[in-house]
Design brief:
The protein is built from 16 helices and 21 strands. The protein has helices spanning 71-80, 144-155, 173-177, 207-210, 221-224, 280-289, 303-309, 335-343, 347-355, 381-385, 396-409, 429-446, 457-466, 484-487, 504-515, 519-536; strands at 51-57, 85-93, 102-108, 111-118, 124-130, 188-192, 195-200, 242-248, 252-257, 271-276, 294-295, 313-325, 360-361, 421-426, 450-455, 471-477, 540-552, 556-557, 560-562, 566-568, 573-574. The strands form four sheets. Strands 1, 8, 9, 10, 11, 12, 13, 14, 15, 16 and 17 form an eleven-stranded mixed β-sheet that branches. Strands 2-3-19-20 form a four-stranded mixed β-sheet. The radius of gyration is 23 Å and the shape is globular.
Length: 575
């Protein structure tokens, strides 16, 4: 996401994200509170209410669970909706948190249990048994039919959900997405109000993690029939721990406990405020003044000092920061040009001089920390697959020599005749600094001219999705811990295939990997698919593997996190 393995019915072996080897973001609400809610003032002595305020991004592109494809939107949605499964506090400290943050583990959400049966034809049937007493924020019962409707809606072509492929393993899903079958023929059913049945085409090790992913969360048919349903608290009916109480476009989204939530008595904050901001200086100033209790990004020149003082923490993050090319438009319809631009990047400079929070130079697309087939202790998909080029400083000069030769072979010796191209990024000081560095590297090493254009987050996402660019900043966070989370997005016509990439051989490898239940075979097929993506077609330009930085106000306890990029604040308390 722009972001897990579990088959035990008792969840005794539930995955806990800890140290790893290594998504894709109005109208007036029913209340209108603009006063700062911070760690100093939020612990309201007169009422005993604890409130927390934060900024993780500007206005989200959408907070419709089926349509969201960004991590910021997912964090908000995770607080207001809940799937069959959910991420919950493991109670153990996450790596690098210094006691301020716990790991997340996969647990039961709206379901209280499930049964799994491998059928004779190789398909697998999951039967989820819903909890008693689960309700929507308006007091109506959540039923299994709500899940049936929501999963059918996700794959309905008219919904145009980027993440429709998230459940393409469900029987008949692909035929429905291709317009060959009706949504009602999807392999899901509700024998009664408390039972939701799903049949998938093969035994996927990460399927229960998909059931904790926002795109699979339930929405109610009568609610989403209103196309503006996400813009007011009165129409934004949810089933999670919190409900929306304020929606002010480009300003804030405020949540308060959903009194009908089955665990409402265990919630911490009585108000969670997401301030919608894209100015890193303003975010840091808001944190320093106490207006904000939590932020993720700060100005580039502040990073080193904040890390040194211990005010900024760094935790693991399963993701890759990369550049994508519009592969259907000249000059980036030529793989030699794409490879030249990829090799001419000094990744060591970017991670040591710009980002400075422990990122690792990327020599491939799928990041470190993603599972491979069971084997040698410590091996993951990246260590098994290796690098496609040496990303370290020692090889940069040789990489640039090869890049210049490729550009000449493509018809642009020393950059002569190469058209002026544009690099697109979303408004953010860190992205700007990286963009300027790339611009200089490409001009210095290849002799080409690259202009820079920034857009606010929502507009940027749509422009990139529409393919209206030459080169664009991009990033992908695992949606579940499996290489497929990074690889199936590049299928022809995929909702998150911003490169407009199409290769039948690549498609075949991915579909074959999805069709087999043999772990070793599917991993080998995914390695072969990544070979096509990078070693052959050079579709993306990986810069570095992410880490996640954050700042949390003193005295706040109980936050938890998983390296899919999700921070959770529902159990936070004032220490």
């Amino acid at each position: 996401m722009k972001k897990r393995k579990l088959v035990s019915l008792a969840l005794s072996g539930a995955l806990v994200f800890g140290v790893l080897a290594g998504c894709g973001n109005g109208n007036e609400g029913s209340t209108n509170s603009t006063a700062p809610q911070n760690s100093e003032t939020a612990n309201n002595e007169s009422s005993g209410a604890f409130e927390i305020s934060m900024s993780i991004a500007s206005e989200p592109q959408t907070i419709d669970p089926a349509l969201n494809s960004a991590v910021d939107g997912a964090i908000m949605i995770n607080h207001m909706f809940e799937g069959l499964m959910r991420w919950e506090d493991s109670g153990s400290e996450t790596a690098g948190s210094d006691g301020t943050c716990n790991d997340a583990k996969l647990g039961y959400g709206q379901a209280e249990s499930y049964d799994k049966v491998v059928n004779e034809d190789g398909t697998v049937t999951y039967t989820f048994h819903l909890r008693d007493g689960i309700k929507w924020s308006d007091g109506k019962d959540v039923t299994a039919q709500d899940f049936v409707y929501s999963w059918q809606r996700l794959v309905t072509p008219a919904t145009a959900a980027d993440y429709s492929y998230m459940i393409d393993s469900v029987v008949n899903a692909n035929a429905i997405m291709n317009g060959e079958m009706e949504p009602s023929e999807l392999g899901v059913s509700a024998p009664d109000d408390k039972t939701f049945v799903v049949t998938i085409t093969s035994d996927l090790p990460y399927f229960t993690e998909i059931c904790a992913f926002p795109a699979t969360f339930p929405v109610r048919e009568d609610v989403v029939s209103n196309p503006e349903w996400t813009y007011t608290p009165e129409t934004y009916i949810s089933n999670g721990a919190y409900k929306m109480t304020v929606r002010e476009t480009n300003s804030q989204i405020v949540m308060e406990p959903n009194e009908y939530y089955y665990n409402v008595d265990k919630l911490g904050p009585q108000k969670i405020t997401f301030k919608l901001m894209d100015d890193n200086n303003a975010q840091l100033n808001g944190f320093k003044t106490g207006e904000l209790d939590f932020i993720q990004t700060v100005p580039v020149d502040e990073v080193a000092g904040l890390l040194s003082s211990g005010e900024m923490k760094v935790v693991d993050y399963l993701g890759t920061y990369y550049v994508c090319y519009q592969t259907q438009k000249a000059p980036f319809d030529d793989w030699r040009v794409r490879k030249a631009f990829t090799l001419a990047v000094d990744r060591n400079y970017i991670v040591t001089e710009i980002t400075q929070t422990g990122q690792v130079e990327a020599g491939a697309y799928v990041p470190a920390g993603v599972y491979d087939a069971a084997g040698v202790e410590g091996d993951d998909f990246r260590t098994v697959g290796g690098d496609y080029y040496d990303p370290t400083a020692d090889s940069y000069e040789a990489n640039c020599e090869e890049a210049r030769a490729l550009l000449a072979e493509a018809g642009y010796p020393n950059g002569e005749g190469f058209p002026v191209v544009e690099y697109l990024y979303n408004t953010d000081d860190n992205h700007k600094a990286i963009a300027e560095a790339l611009q200089n590297m490409w001009q210095t090493e290849l002799g080409v001219t690259v202009t820079l254009t920034n857009q606010e987050w929502g507009t940027f996402l749509q422009t990139r999705k529409d393919g209206d660019y030459s080169i664009a900043r991009n990033g992908w966070i695992a949606d579940y811990n499996d290489p497929m989370s990074f690889l199936d997005m590049w299928l022809t016509g995929g909702g998150n295939n911003d490169a407009q990439y199409s290769n039948p051989d690549y498609d075949a490898k991915i579909q074959e990997a999805k069709a087999t239940s043999d772990v070793a075979t599917r991993m080998q097929l995914m390695h072969e698919a990544e070979d096509i993506l990078l070693e052959q077609d050079w579709v993306v330009n990986p810069l570095y593997f992410y880490t996640q930085s954050y700042m949390l106000a003193d005295g706040i306890e109980g936050m938890y996190y998983c390296p899919l990029g999700y921070f959770f604040f529902d159990t936070c308390t004032q220490g």
